[in-house]
Amino acid sequence: MFPLLSLPLDLVHPIVESIDNPDDLLSLAQTCTKLQPLAEAALWKQVHIRNGESADRLLASLEARPHRFGCVQELEITPHPRSTWHEISILPSLIRKMGNLRVLQLESPFINYFNRGERYKQYWIDQYISEYLRLFEDSSLEDGPLTNLTSFTFHSHGAGTRYYKLDTIYPVLLSSTLTHLHISCSDVNKFEVPDANLGKSPLRTLVLDECNVTSEGLSTLLSLPRGLEYLYLQETSHHGSSIQSNMPMGPIFAAISQQKHSLQHLQHSCSKRGYSDWLPNDEPDFTGFSLFYSLKTLELDDKSPLKKLLPVPQYAPPNLDTFCFTGLECRPDTYWDDMPSRVNSISNGTNFKHLELHTSPASTNSLSRMFSLPSRVLKLVEIARNMKERNITTTLTNYTRYSVIPPYVYGERRPVPVVYFESEKFWPEEETQIALMEAFGNKPFELEDKECGTMVAAKLAAGRHCLDY
């Protein structure tokens, strides 16, 4: 007997699950009757449907061996507009039989398709999306579908428009099983829910990606989870917005504050014209982030008015571990001139252990994008020195963007982060550069993309001259 077959099934199972090559799993399934159910369970665990042909093949395979319906745990439906994708209309009927489905990702074929006459087709909404929403409606029934679904990602559009209204996916919002929800390009408009649904959702992670947000809609949406832990509020900044500019920030913050008892990670980004100037000095009962006791990570874009709360100690989150300052620019050249004082002002009012500086995604990953000016590099070093006095570490992360904008759908390359500066590596490197200068003199150096930004900063801080400047 082959040694693998002599092991108990509870030991064989994780071995089979560790195989990630579909061809290997298929071969294993054909080896013997004992291994076939284990191999098939791993083979059918993740299914990706890109066109109508793959949907037809899925139908034939599942119906040939009905137990395979129970093997599917993750399903991605990302049809391409140029493919024969209409056959995917059979998928909702198949999903009804997938009793162990945990993760579902659904994309419209037209969401980022810009050919004239083919954008935001209404029949995608009327003929397809309605069937998926019916699945969520029926999930509360006895023996209904989606009873084990915990994660849903939905990239869509409205009928003839880039955005769809949030209340059109109302059954999704009332799911009793979802813990992770990622939606994009939605008008988070005002809608109503019965009082019986308030605070009942098990949702722990909510991602609003390139969404038009209103305070009324966000307030209702955030009244549903009983304990949200991760909120990514990424307001529209890359597409035309239907929401008015210069909105008051107070009602938005009040909506977020409904989850102050549980929120651990908050991210907020918005467009430059999104909000009016805001600091609630005239609100005597305003507590800011001071009651967000669980908040450990705060990511705020440079355009977010929420950052204005951080220099005020009575508004600061009490247990913050990491502050991420995002959306930082490299142009104009004077952008970083006051950055040390801005960061100092934040750290004076808010205690945290780690400072992360994130630049806005750009089409180049060149080291020279951030390090093309010695004065800018020295401003970064100044920030790191100031933070060191408070026992705060500092990192700088650059993002490369590949000609696409959010929301990022199937096949699109997401911005790639590269850490260019780490304060913990900078201090010993600076001492090394000073020692080298004392031993060999001040030899100029050239800026190379492959060179670590921490190294370049250390050379400049030690007083060495760069030939590229």
TrEMBL record:
This protein is called F-box domain-containing protein
Check the record and name the InterPro entries matching this protein: F-box_dom (IPR001810), LRR_dom_sf (IPR032675)
Give the originating organism.
Massariosphaeria phaeospora
F-box domain residues are 1-47
